[in-house]
C-alpha cells in the first residue's frame, strides 16, 4: 500500500544548515514541526559536540599517553553529532508524515484500510526516530564518562553539560516514543519497550556523571 508522500516544501531545511535564530523562530511558531522530537535530537547533537570539544582540548603534550583513546572519542563523538542532526531532520519528516496519513480519505472500506496502514507505518517511524535518539544519548553519555578521568580539567564542566544534554535527549525522546506507541497496536508498540526501559538508566547515569563533575569543580 502506498504511504503518504511529503513534498520538499512540507519539510523544513536541514537543521544543520539553518541559523539558530531561524530554528528558534520555527520552534516558536504555530507549525507542526519542529517540535519536541527535533529538540531531543538536537540535545543529543549538542551533547556530542561538547564531548568532541573536550576531547580536542585533551590533545596536549601531557595527554600523549591517552591520545589513542582521545582520538577514538573524537571520532565517535563527531559521528554521533552527525547522526543526531540527521535524526532531527528525520523527526520533522516523520511528524509531517503522521499528519499527512491522518488526512488520507476514509470514505470507502479500501480507503479506511489504506489509511489505517499508512497511519500505523507513520507512527512506527515517528517512534523509531526518538528511539534512535535514545541510542545516541546512551553512546554519548558513555563517551563522556570515559573522557572524564582523562579530560582536560580546564573544560571539565563541559563534560557535565554534555551529560545533562544527553539526559535531556533521552527524557524528551521517552515522551515522543510514548505518545506514538499509545496509538499503535501492542504488536507494533511492544518493539519500543526496550528503548523506554533504558531511559531511566540513562537519566541515572547522567545524574551520576553530573555529580562527579560537580565534585571535581568543588574539590
Can you walk me through this structure?
It comes from Nocardia halotolerans. InterPro entries: Cyclodeamin/CycHdrlase, Formintransfe-cycloase-like_sf. Pfam families: FTCD_C. This protein has about 220 residues and is an all-alpha fold. The chain has seven helices and no strands. The chain has helices spanning about 20-30, 35-55, 65-100, 110-145, 155-180, 185-190, 195-219. Helix 2 (about 35-55) runs parallel beside helix 4 (about 110-145), helix 2 (about 35-55) runs antiparallel to helix 5 and helix 4 (about 110-145) runs antiparallel to helix 5. The longest helix has about 40 residues, at about 110-145.
Q: What features would you highlight for this structure?
A:
single chain; 219 residues; mainly alpha; 7 helices; 0% strand; elongated; disordered N terminus; Cyclodeamin/CycHdrlase; Cyclodeaminase/cyclohydrolase family protein
Kindly summarize this structure in a few lines.
This protein is mostly helical. Helices cover 74% and strands 0% of the residues. The chain starts with 19 loop residues before the first helix and ends with a helix.
Amino acid at each position: 500500500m502506498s504511504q503518504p508522500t511529503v513534498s520538499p516544501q512540507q519539510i523544513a531545511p536541514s537543521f544543520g544548515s539553518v541559523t539558530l535564530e531561524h530554528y528558534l523562530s520555527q520552534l516558536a511558531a504555530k507549525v507542526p514541526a519542529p517540535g519536541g522530537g527535533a529538540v531531543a535530537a538536537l540535545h543529543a547533537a549538542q551533547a556530542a559536540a561538547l564531548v568532541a570539544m573536550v576531547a580536542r582540548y585533551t590533545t596536549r603534550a601531557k595527554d600523549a599517553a591517552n591520545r589513542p583513546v582521545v582520538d577514538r572519542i573524537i571520532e565517535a563523538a563527531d559521528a554521533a553529532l552527525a547522526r543526531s542532526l540527521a535524526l532531527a531532520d528525520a523527526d520533522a519528516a516523520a511528524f509531517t508524515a503522521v499528519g499527512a496519513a491522518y488526512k488520507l480519505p476514509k470514505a470507502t472500506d479500501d480507503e479506511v484500510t489504506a489509511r489505517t496502514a499508512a497511519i500505523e507505518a507513520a507512527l512506527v517511524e515517528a517512534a523509531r526516530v526518538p528511539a534512535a535518539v535514545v541510542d545516541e544519548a546512551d553512546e554519548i553519555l558513555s563517551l563522556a564518562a570515559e573522557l572524564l578521568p582523562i579530560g582536560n580539567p580546564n573544560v571539565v564542566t563541559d563534560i557535565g553539560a554534555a551529560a545533562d544534554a544527553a539526559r535531556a535527549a533521552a527524557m524528551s525522546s521517552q515522551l515522543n516514543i510514548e505518545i506514538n506507541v499509545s496509538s499503535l497496536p501492542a504488536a507494533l508498540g511492544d518493539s519500543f519497550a526496550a528503548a523506554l526501559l533504558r531511559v531511566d538508566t540513562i537519566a541515572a547515569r547522567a545524574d551520576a556523571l553530573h555529580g562527579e563533575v560537580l565534585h571535581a569543580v568543588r574539590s
